[in-house]
Design brief:
This protein has 329 residues and is of the alpha+beta class. It folds into two domains: 11-258, CorA soluble domain-like (Beta Polymerase, domain 2), CATH 3.30.460.20; 265-291 and 302-325, no CATH class. The protein has helices at 28-37, 51-60, 65-71, 126-136, 144-178, 185-215, 223-289, 304-325; strands spanning 11-17, 23-25, 41-47, 79-83, 86-93, 106-112, 116-121. The two termini are 70 Å apart.
Length: 329
C-alpha cells in the first residue's frame, strides 16, 4: 500500500471524500486550505509520534487544545466524548504488524465532525490501510458518518479473525490432549490462556465505547450509521464471549493435563511402593545374614547360600500371591 499523503513524515494519508466512494489525494500546499474552508469532507491520518504531525495538529487543525492533547496522547482508553460539533473517539485494534503479538493492541485516536476527520496512531493498523485503499479504488465511504461506521466494522472484523485463530488453536490443543500427546502442551495452553485474557481485557472497554457511539445524536451520524455501529458492537460482544469460552476451555485443559500428570505420578509411586514392599523383607534378611559375627547359621554348610536364595524366592512368591489376592498387583 502506498501512502496517499502530502508528506510521509508524520502525515500518512490526506484524502478528500468526493461523495461517490472515492478519495482524492491532497497536496501538502492545499491541505491547510481544504481543512479550514469546510467545503469538502477531508480525512487526515497521522503518526502522532512524528514532530511534523504534532506541529500540524497543534498549529493548523484549529481544534480545541483538549482534543489536540487527546490525539497526541501516549496512553488512551476506549471512549467516546462529544466535543462541540464533533466526537473525540479512542478505539483499539489488534496488532497484526510483523513480529507483534495480537494482544498488544494498537490505539487509534479519532476526531470527526461533519466535514473533518483526523485519525492518529503510532503503529500501523490494517483497518486504516484498508480504508485508504478502498477510497483510492472508489469503493470507500462517501461521508464522515459512513467513514466512522466502516472503520468500526473493519476494526472488529480484524478482531474476529484473531479470536477465530485462538479458537482453532484451542481445538488443536484439545485434539492433541485426546490423542495422548501432552508433550509441551502445558506451555502452549498457558500461552493461549494468557493471550485470551489479555485480548478480552483490552477489548471489553471498546464495547462500552461503541455502545455510547451508537447512542450519539450527531446530525451527520444517520440512523443507518448508528444501526451498523450497533451491529458491530454485537459482533464485538460475541468475540468477547468467545474469548471467555477459550479461556475456560484452556483452564479445563490445564486441569486435565494436571490430572493426567498426577495419575502418572501416582502410578509410578504405586509401582515403587510395591517394589519397596517386596524387597523390604529381603533387605532385612540379607542384612541380618551379612553381619560379621560368629554363629551365623549355615556359615560352613556348602548348600547354605542356595538354600537361602530359595527362601528369599519363596518369600517373593508369597508376597506376589498376597498382593494379587488383595488386588494390589
Amino acid at each position: 500500500m502506498q501512502a496517499s499523503a502530502p508528506d510521509s513524515d508524520g502525515i500518512l494519508h490526506a484524502l478528500t471524500l468526493t461523495g461517490d466512494g472515492k478519495g482524492s489525494p491532497v497536496a501538502e500546499s492545499e491541505l491547510n486550505e481544504l481543512w479550514s474552508d469546510g467545503k469538502s469532507a477531508i480525512w487526515v491520518h497521522i503518526d502522532y509520534s512524528r514532530d511534523k504531525a504534532q506541529t500540524w495538529v497543534r498549529n493548523s487543525s484549529a481544534l480545541d487544545e483538549i482534543v489536540v492533547e487527546a490525539l497526541l496522547a501516549e496512553e488512551t482508553r476506549p471512549r467516546v466524548v462529544p466535543f462541540g460539533p464533533g466526537l473525540l473517539i479512542c478505539l483499539r485494534g489488534v496488532n497484526l504488524n510483523p513480529g507483534a503479538e495480537p494482544e498488544d493492541m494498537v490505539a487509534l485516536r479519532l476526531w470527526i465532525d461533519e466535514r473533518r476527520i483526523i485519525t492518529s496512531t503510532q503503529r500501523a493498523i490494517l483497518s486504516i490501510g484498508d480504508l485508504a485503499d478502498a477510497l483510492q479504488k472508489g469503493l470507500g465511504p462517501s461521508e464522515p458518518g459512513e467513514f466512522l461506521a466502516e472503520l468500526c466494522d473493519r476494526l472488529i472484523q480484524r478482531m474476529g479473525d484473531t479470536v477465530e485463530d485462538l479458537e482453532i488453536q484451542m481445538d488443536d490443543l484439545e485434539d492433541l490432549l485426546i490423542e495422548g500427546e501432552p508433550e509441551g502442551l502445558r506451555y502452549q495452553v498457558s500461552q493461549l490462556r494468557r493471550e485470551s485474557v489479555s485480548l478480552k481485557k483490552h477489548m471489553a472497554p471498546q464495547r462500552e465505547a461503541l455502545s455510547r457511539l451508537a447512542a450519539e445524536k450527531c446530525p451527520w451520524l444517520s440512523t443507518d450509521h448508528r444501526r451498523l455501529i450497533r451491529e458491530v458492537n454485537e459482533h464485538l460482544i460475541r468475540h468477547i464471549e468467545n474469548l471467555e469460552t477459550v479461556r475456560e476451555r484452556a483452564a479445563l485443559t490445564q486441569e486435565e493435563l494436571l490430572s493426567r500428570l498426577s495419575e502418572q505420578l501416582n502410578a509410578r509411586m504405586y509401582v515403587l511402593s510395591l517394589m519397596t514392599a517386596i524387597f523390604l523383607p529381603l533387605s532385612f534378611l540379607t542384612g541380618l545374614m551379612g553381619i560379621n559375627v560368629g554363629g551365623i547359621p549355615g556359615a560352613s554348610h556348602p548348600w547354605a547360600f542356595s538354600i537361602f536364595l530359595a527362601i528369599l524366592g519363596l518369600i517373593v512368591l508369597v508376597e506376589i500371591l498376597y498382593f494379587r489376592k488383595r488386588k494390589w498387583l
